[in-house]
Design brief:
This protein has five helices and 16 strands. It is of the alpha+beta class. The chain has two domains: about 90 residues, Sandwich (Immunoglobulin-like), CATH 2.60.40.2250; about 160 residues, C8orf32 fold. Strands 3-6-1-15 form a four-stranded antiparallel sheet, with no helix packed on it. Strands 4-5-2-14 form a four-stranded antiparallel sheet, with no helix packed on it. It has a four-stranded antiparallel sheet with strand order 12-11-10-13, with helices on one face. β10 and β11 form a beta hairpin.
């Protein structure tokens, strides 16, 4: 599917500062047809790749200014496979690839060690990893209220269990933490999302099941095949839209994801079937 994505970000820079941005579409089997980055006032920048997952980063060294405007736009063919999860081989921990092992560990926002008993009491009885992840995703959807402004940048998965409210970032962190507590590798996934209202960046999570990364979204706000992938990581600390170093005030953002094809058939995962989506 072909999408047109845009992100317009505005900041006030109060002192010499650095911003590390992650807004560019990831270059994998996902193909970038065209893209443009505009910065006003004109500023030199460096493009970097994160060492772990090759997320694309923009590093900006900034002078004080009242209005820093950053505009990114791209036309992207996303890449995914929708598949029926029938019989598949469970992957023993000893057989996991080295780059997957890190996604078994607790991280800053995903304290899986604190949720071990909860996860295993509620979902450990399910017959395989796919059913466990389906069940916990459905439980989050039913028991955590999606409430804008109810959390902040310090909110963790453990907080979300307690408060039972949050935004997409919190839903993703809780899903990741519960997966890891069940010894299922899981990672944070952020991107542009078609049909999300209001338009914004969107966070989901991927679980490593049967030797592949499968996408899950406990918010159920979007069709899962309507994502343009930006970044993955252990949690939001690895895949934040902006990491700020210095005296910088966020002013506003405008994000959009527009469908350019006409044969789009939305895929919504249902907790009672065995169909899933894998982004490439």
């Amino acid at each position: 599917m072909k999408f047109k994505v845009k992100a317009n970000l505005k900041y006030q820079i109060k002192s010499e500062s650095t911003i590390i941005l992650s807004v560019q579409a990831l270059e994998t089997e996902q193909k970038i047809v065209s893209e443009e980055l505009l910065i006003s006032p004109k500023t030199d920048y460096k493009e970097l790749l994160s060492s772990a997952e090759a997320n694309r980063l923009i590093s900006l060294a900034l002078k004080p200014t009242e209005n820093l405007l950053i505009s990114y736009s791209a036309t992207v063919n996303n890449a995914f496979i929708i598949k029926e999860i029938k019989e598949f081989k469970e992957v023993n921990i000893a057989e996991l690839p080295g780059d997957v092992l890190t996604y078994l560990n607790p991280s800053r926002y995903c304290q899986s060690d604190k949720l071990y008993r909860l996860a295993n009491n509620m979902f450990g009885y399910k017959k395989d990893d796919f059913e466990k992840v389906q069940a916990l995703t459905h439980w989050i959807y039913l028991n955590v209220r999606y409430l804008s402004g109810s959390t902040d940048s310090q909110t963790s998965a453990y907080d979300t269990v307690t408060e039972q409210s949050g935004v997409c970032r919190d839903f993703a962190h809780l899903g990741i933490a519960l997966c890891r507590a069940l010894t299922i590798p899981a990672r944070y996934f952020t991107g542009y999302a078609y049909q999300l209202q209001p338009q914004d960046f969107h966070a989901c999570f991927e679980a490593y099941i049967g030797g592949q990364w499968l996408l899950f979204d406990a918010t159920r706000l979007i069709p899962l095949n309507g994502m343009v992938k930006i970044a993955v990581g252990r949690d939001a600390a690895d895949a934040a839209v902006a990491n700020i170093f210095g005296d910088v005030a966020f002013v506003s953002s405008q994000v959009s994801c527009e469908l350019l094809d006409h044969d789009f058939k939305p895929f919504h995962q249902h907790h009672e079937n065995r169909w899933a989506i894998s982004y490439l």
